[in-house]
Amino acid sequence: MSSLRVLACSLPFVALCSTGLLTAQEPSANNLISFGDFEDDTQFVQNGLPKGMDTWTDVQDRQTATVTIAQDEKSSGNNSLKIERIEKKGNMRVSIITLEVQPGQKYRFSCMAKATEGRVQIYIWPRGNNPKEIIKDGTELTDFTTTTFGGVVAGNRLDLPVRDAENPEGFNKLEATFTVPDGVHYVSVQACFSHTLGTAWYDDFQLEAVE
Ligand SMILES: [Ca+2]
Question: Most-buried pick from 102, 149, 174, 180 (CB within 10 A)?
């Protein structure tokens, strides 16, 4: 009898897990990224992407991926950012936006991401007084750490190999905290999906100052 009761109680929890609802994150009122959920159609003015977003690839002579705002998979609302690889070779990064930050302040970054293979990656590039110039002297974010299951950090990059993810078939939360080093006044956030075939989706970008 008691085991039946336990089973009955656990069923709704299992149902929630299987739909991925438990992995969604609550929007933060202090989010510095204004269109991180990709739901504001009025922002989609640049190549179909939100204003301020741009793509970058190290294979300059041809396109190795397509980048769109898509509706087929999403963590919130109707839309997500979709990177679909055409070729295995090379990087494809999408710059979300450049944001002003305060030296010495701690920040928490998070987003939701899924991919059919390979790894989803986030770069957080430090910038100095010029928001358009990436610091190229090896400056790294201070105490850059992740709490994401299966996630690893290297330099200014957060990686989640799909095979190591808590939910390999669905969206996973990528989360990291860091402190802004002296001399850094801006960061640019990039979603990256590289050196693989397949498709990745990103949604619900957040960056907020924390205590
Ligand atoms: Ca969304």
Answer: 174
